[in-house]
Structures are given as structure tokens and as C-alpha cells.
Recover the amino acids of this structure.
């Protein structure tokens, strides 16, 4: 499992959610209840996956692989590569939500077809990986700030609690992977459960580290990508290449990676390496303080300012500078909306136009469109939102997709296209049920976005 994952505020408009936790050696996802009964339209779900092939050079991917596979998020190094050998079996225990089974089957199919991993469901008690579905309260009783996590050498939450703080569940002591458990919430939204499943199963199988320099990966603490990307599947395919094995050192793996990547990702040989600089701890700490729990508003703003200063001092022109502007914008929204908007504009600029940051731009577009709607600029909002609807769908982000659709509905009604706006709003609800879960959460999202519309405010129709 991953070490305690530092969940930052997601990019979703007005979404409160994942917060960072302090570094440890237990991979997690930070802590969102859902009833099957609903008066809203039926919940929608995504059909065939549409992952994009990685755009990174093989040189960069080799460096990324080594940093992901031989370090924990806390910074501790790992002496050898560990993975499963032979067929991998997965079972589900506990009280899983109705969405977990279909989402798990889709993910396992992707792992077999895209990553070439021999993995399948089983009902046998001796499965290599046990996915236990429990309540969020039970998860927090084990790791207070986690929404989900993965642990080696146990099969249940009670096993983990008994072995906690022992070498048995230490990733740094592991020399091979044979048995582990993933703990997922059964009372969160379907998307939250699925996001946890993707992240924790990826780390159960492969790398345990996260790197802020990766723009197109779930192996990144910025919490932008929530389903495994084409980049992630390539990393996992390399992880389970026959030329690697348990117990290999970093240097031994490094010797084999160029040949592995040339074989499984031939187009990466023709891509120029970017060689992005390592992310200094001072920037990471500043971002985590700015967007994580425990700090007061003044400390958050000070930390966001520090992150921006570090990014500029490092000379970054990449997604990390953009994220620094984004963090500053988030923290200024209540006190200085005009300055916040300026930071969102800068974030959008530095996220650039590359495919690997298309999802980042979709998130920021939701913020900019909200400002446009509040200012009565309906056409500007429609222009901002339109390119990003397919991006959200392609990345299977129902929460973001429904948010963009709700914003578009308000913009259309503001522009006088009332019937079209109402239809878009109705269409958004099925996605919102998957993304946000309960009826009250969906309706709260509708009210939040509806409150942006000046025409609606004048009519008192919120």
C-alpha cells in the first residue's frame, strides 16, 4: 500500500474533500454516505475506458520509475524492488457498496489488457490481495485522516490494528509481495470508492511513492488524476516485465529499464526528455500546509505565498508553478476574489496546452467560468466550459463532469437559452449521483452553482 498519501484540496469547484496528512510509510487516500434510494435520475457510469498513451520520453520514464519504485512518500529509500510473482488473485470482503464490484472488474480488465498483469478475482480466502469494504469511521479508527489505505502482510482491518507499529506491516522491511489488504469505504460516493480503488490497487501492485513532477499520473500528490492513466499503465507494465524480479537493487533495475521501455513504449524513444527538476521539500511542505488540515487562514495564505516564491525561485515554468498559482487563488477566493481570479488565469497559462495537463485546465476552467457567470458574462462562461466536457468524461471524473455541466446550464439560462440549460442540468444529475453520491450532496451542489447566476439571485429563485 502507499504510505500516508497527502491529499490536497481537489480542483473541483467548491468541493471540500481530500486533505493532506502527515508523511508516514502507509499509503492512503484522505477522508466523503450514500443511499441507493434516490428521487433523482438514475446514476450514470462510464463505459469503455479512453486512456491516452503517455507523452513522456523513455529517458524521463526510466528516471520516474526508479524514483517511484525505490522511495516512499516520506522520503525513506527502499533497498530492493518488491512485487508479486506469478498470477495475482483479488477478493472482496466486508460490506461493499453496489458500485465496487463493477468498478473493480473494469479496473482488473484494464490491468490485464493495458499493463499485461496476470490478475483476476477470486472467492478464495488465500487471495493475494484482499479488498475489505468498511465504514469510514472504521478506517479513521485505524488511520484518522485516511479515506482508504493499503497494508502488507494482513487480510483484515483487525489484523492491521493488531500489527500496527510492527515490522510486519512495514513497507521498508518487505522483500516480496505475497499478501496484502486494501481498506475502502463503503459509505462514500461511488467515485470516491473507485478513486481509492485505483490508487491503492496501483500501489498494492507497484510503486509506493508519489512525485509532484508527474503531470499525467495518479502517482502525484496534487490529487488531479484519480483513475489510472496511460502513463501509469506503462509504469505498471514495466514493473511486471519478465526481466525484473523481486530483490533487485536500484542499479540492477536501472540497467534493464532502457531495454524494457524501448520494447513496451517505442514511441517514447523519439520524445525529447524534459528532465524536470526534483521538487524541493520546502515547496512540498508549503503546499501541504496551505491546502491541508490544521493551519489557520493566515498560515495557509503565508504558505501558499511561500510555495509560489519557491516555484519562481526554482525557475519552474511547468505544472508545479501553475499549481502554486492555483493554491493561491483558492485561498484568496473569499477575501480577494479579483486577486484569486488573477491567480487562476496564471494557473491556466502555466498549465499550457499539452495533452498531459488537459485535466488540470478543465479544473481551472470551472473556477474561471464561475467568475464569468457571477459577472453575468454568459457567453464567456460557455466558451470557457465547452472544450473541457469531453476531457472530464475521458478521465472518468463524474464529479468534475457534472460540475462543468451544471455551470454550463447556468450560463445557457443566463444567455436566454432556458430550455437548453434545463436539459443540460437534468443530464448532469446522473453524473452527479456517481460523483457526489447522496441526494443531499447533489442538491447542495446545484444550489451552490445556482447561486452564481445573477438573474437567479434577482428572482430569488435559489
Amino acid at each position: 500500500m502507499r504510505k500516508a498519501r497527502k491529499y490536497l484540496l481537489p480542483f473541483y469547484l467548491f468541493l471540500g474533500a481530500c486533505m493532506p496528512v502527515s508523511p508516514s510509510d502507509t499509503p492512503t487516500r484522505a477522508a466523503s454516505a450514500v443511499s441507493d434510494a434516490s428521487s433523482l435520475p438514475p446514476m450514470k457510469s462510464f463505459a469503455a475506458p479512453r486512456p491516452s498513451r503517455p507523452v513522456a520520453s523513455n529517458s524521463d520514464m526510466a528516471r520516474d520509475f526508479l524514483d517511484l519504485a525505490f522511495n516512499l512518500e516520506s522520503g525513506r529509500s527502499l533497498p530492493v524492488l518488491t512485487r508479486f510473482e506469478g498470477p495475482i488473485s483479488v477478493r472482496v470482503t466486508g460490506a461493499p457498496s453496489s458500485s465496487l464490484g463493477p468498478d473493480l472488474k473494469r479496473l482488473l480488465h484494464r490491468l490485464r489488457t493495458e499493463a499485461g498483469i496476470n490478475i483476476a478475482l477470486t472467492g478464495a480466502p488465500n487471495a493475494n490481495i484482499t479488498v475489505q469494504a468498511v465504514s469510514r469511521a472504521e478506517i479513521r479508527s485505524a488511520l484518522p485522516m485516511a479515506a482508504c489505505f493499503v497494508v502488507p502482510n494482513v487480510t483484515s482491518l483487525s489484523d492491521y490494528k493488531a500489527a500496527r507499529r510492527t515490522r510486519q506491516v512495514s513497507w521498508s522491511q518487505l522483500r516480496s509481495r505475497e499478501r496484502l489488504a486494501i481498506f475502502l469505504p463503503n459509505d462514500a460516493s461511488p467515485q470516491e470508492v473507485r478513486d481509492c480503488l485505483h490508487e491503492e490497487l496501483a500501489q498494492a501492485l507497484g510503486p509506493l511513492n508519489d512525485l509532484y513532477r508527474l503531470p499525467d499520473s495518479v502517482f502525484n500528490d496534487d490529487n488531479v488524476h484519480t483513475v489510472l492513466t496511460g502513463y501509469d499503465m506503462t509504469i505498471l507494465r514495466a514493473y511486471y516485465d519478465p526481466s525484473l524480479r523481486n530483490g533487485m537493487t536500484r542499479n540492477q533495475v536501472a540497467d534493464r529499464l532502457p531495454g524494457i521501455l524501448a520494447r513496451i513504449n517505442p514511441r517514447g524513444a523519439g520524445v525529447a526528455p524534459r528532465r524536470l527538476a526534483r521538487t524541493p521539500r520546502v515547496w512540498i511542505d508549503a503546499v501541504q500546509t496551505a491546502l491541508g488540515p490544521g493551519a489557520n487562514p493566515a498560515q495557509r495564505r503565508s504558505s501558499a505565498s511561500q510555495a509560489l516564491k519557491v516555484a519562481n525561485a526554482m525557475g519552474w515554468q511547468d505544472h508545479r508553478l501553475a499549481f502554486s498559482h492555483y493554491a493561491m487563488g483558492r485561498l484568496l477566493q473569499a477575501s480577494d476574489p479579483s486577486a484569486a481570479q488573477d491567480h487562476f488565469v496564471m494557473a491556466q497559462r502555466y498549465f499550457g496546452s499539452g495533452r498531459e495537463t488537459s485535466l488540470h485546465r478543465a479544473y481551472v476552467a470551472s473556477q474561471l467560468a464561475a467568475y464569468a457567470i457571477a459577472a453575468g458574462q454568459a457567453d464567456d462562461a460557455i466558451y470557457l466550459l465547452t472544450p473541457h466536457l469531453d476531457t472530464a468524461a475521458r478521465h472518468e471524473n463524474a464529479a468534475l463532469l457534472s460540475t462543468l455541466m451544471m455551470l454550463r446550464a447556468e450560463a445557457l439560462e443566463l444567455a436566454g437559452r432556458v430550455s437548453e440549460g434545463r436539459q443540460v442540468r437534468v443530464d448532469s444529475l446522473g453524473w452527479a449521483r456517481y460523483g457526489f453520491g447522496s441526494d443531499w450532496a447533489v442538491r447542495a451542489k446545484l444550489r451552490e452553482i445556482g447561486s452564481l447566476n445573477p438573474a437567479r439571485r434577482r428572482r430569488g429563485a435559489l
Observations:
- The chain has two domains: 46-270, 281-459.
